[in-house]
Amino acid sequence: MKDPKKILIYIKYPYTTLIISVMWICIIAILVKTNGSHLELILALTSLVTIHLAYRGFKPIK
Questions:
Q1: I need a labelling partner for 7 at 20 to 30 A (CA). Which of 15, 22, 37, 58 fits?
Q2: How far apart are the C-alpha atoms of 62 and 46, rounded to whole Å?
Q3: How is residue 1 annotated by DSSP?
Q4: DSSP states of 4-62 as a string?
Q5: CA-to-CA distance for 49 and 31, rounded, in angstroms?
Q6: In degrees rounded to 5, what are phi and psi of residue 36?
Q7: How far apart are CA 34 and CA 10, in angstroms?
Q8: For the CA atoms of the chain, what is the radius of gyration?
Q9: Smallest Cα–Cα separation from 15: which of 46, 53, 61, 51?
Q10: What is the tens place of the pLDDT at every residue in 10-58?
């Protein structure tokens, strides 16, 4: 994209990026605290939630 301002049109909820970032930072903190127990499950669930939030927050407005 040549014009970076055009990407702002596709953000339905402006705090989507912030929510996803905070969620991943917290998950990393939890994994460090628990020494990585249930690593695959936690990462799989976080990834699914991230995909869902990204789909809902970044889809084009009709």
A1: 22
A2: 28
A3: -
A4: GGGGGGG-SSTTHHHHHHHHHHHHHHHHHHTTTTTHHHHHHHHHHHHHHHHHHHHSPP-
A5: 17
A6: 80, 20
A7: 37
A8: 15
A9: 53
A10: 555 678 888 899 999 999 998 888 887 888 998 999 999 999 988 887 7
Q: What amino acid occupies position 51? A: I
pLDDT for res 34: 87
Q: Which long-range contacts (CB under 8 A, 24 or more apart) does 11-14 make?
A: 11/57, 11/58, 12/56, 12/57, 12/58, 12/59, 12/61, 13/56, 13/57
Q: Which two tokens stand for residue 59?
A: 């889809």
Kindly state the tokens that stand for 5.
Answer: 């301002």
CA angle 16, 40, 51 (to 5 degrees): 25
